Amino acid sequence: MKNKKNLKFSTILLGMIFLFSAVVLSDEDTISLTEDLSIGIDYGDENMMFGSISDIQLDGEENIYILDGKKNRIQVFDSQGGFLRSILLNKGQGPEEVSMLLGFAVHPDGLISIYDRAGNKVLNFDEKGSCQNYFKLEFQAFDINHYKDGQIAILGFNNDQGIHIYNRKGDRLFSFAEPFSVPSKMSKYKDAPFTKFPLKFSSTGDGTLFILNPHKYEIFMYEEGQLKGEINGKSDFFRPLSIHSVKGDGGRQYMSLIFPTVSVLMHEDIVFVIIRGIPVVGEEESKSQMQIYKNQKLIHTMDIQGFPSAIDSKGRLYFSASEEGFPVMKRFILEASGDF
User: Fold this and answer.
1) Cβ–Cβ < 8 Å for 244, 256
2) Number of domains making up the chain
3) Quick one: which of 224, 199, 221 has its CA closest to 295?
């Protein structure tokens, strides 16, 4: 994207994937995370080896879908970690091909929707991995999620709104979510879409969405397209959207964008907000922070390593992580000694 001075923008996404080991913190209560499943190996069965873990999703039977962006595929496992199938995504510029995976949505029946940023299109696959159809978007999207009842929620600035609900045929059903206010220090970028919404958002799959204000720790919760609540938090891990000037080869000047990365997961009346920390140069591991809310009130904070992006009906958290240098998916059970 270029501005009026013909500056080229490049997006730097925060965070790396790190090994999560169980963390126990003590306040009035003791809360711990205990690993109960690990998927991923360094050598051996190709189906168990990941180039990367870009995202993790679950279907209605709580089968596990792991998006491997480097190998351009989706690996599917049952809830016990048994391998089910591999969905290979054809790479290229063709109608049913992808060249820049930005995210995917898994529906309860196992159908999959993928957003290809380069082609600016959504591709729909059946549970066996065959492409059923695709449709183009009229705006640049940032992220995709399952909304409810097989519908697709897409994040992107269009017609002064940020969330757009589609059916799998590509019909837009409705839109909602007003853009966030741009702070005065970024006034010269106020018309740029990247200042109005985050790059990621979270969905519970039942019509509830969580959207982060990229400029401050403020999370809006929408139900059925209506704003129903806010979480206004504090964390040393949260860093607002920032823009930096970087000189490239040949003396060209680039604008580097650093976005906050936050995942919001919900189980019953508990909301987990995970803030990905900024990697520290020279350190092998970087911490993130998980804050736990009940009735929009903070009840516990713990530092973690790795990044959870899914939660199941039992409240188990699914982490993208790293073990001895190779990607793994880990599932953890959250346990509390007190009145949680």
Assistant:
1) yes
2) 1
3) 221
Residue 145 φ then ψ, to 5°: -150, 160
Per-residue model confidence as pLDDT tens for the chain (340 residues): 434 333 333 332 333 222 233 333 334 557 889 999 999 999 999 999 999 999 999 999 999 999 999 999 999 999 999 999 999 999 988 888 888 888 899 999 999 999 999 999 999 999 888 999 999 999 999 999 999 999 999 999 999 999 999 999 999 999 999 999 999 988 888 889 889 999 999 999 999 999 999 999 999 999 999 999 999 999 999 999 998 777 767 777 777 888 899 999 999 999 999 999 876 655 545 689 999 999 889 999 999 989 999 999 999 999 998 888 899 999 999 987 765 6
b/e map 118-150, b = 16+ CB within 10 Å: ebbbbbbbebeeebeebbebeeebbbbbbbbee
Round to whole Å and give the CA distance between 290 and 213.
Answer: 17
- Domain membership of residue 264 (yes or no) is yes
The domain containing residue 138 runs over which residues? 8-336
Amino acid type, 120: N
Does residue 47 sit within a domain?
Answer: yes
Per the domain annotation, does 12 fall within a domain? yes
Which CATH number is 213's domain given?
Answer: 2.120.10.30
Cβ partners under 8 Å of residue 333, min gap 6: 33, 34, 36, 314, 315, 316
Residues composing the chain: 340
Residue 86 lies in a domain: yes
Residue 195 sits at φ, ψ, to 5 deg, of: -90, -10
CB 285 within 8 A of CB 18: yes
Residues of 302-322 as b/e, b for ≥16 C-beta within 10 angstroms? bebbbbbbbbeeebbbbbbbb
Residue 266, SS3? Answer: strand
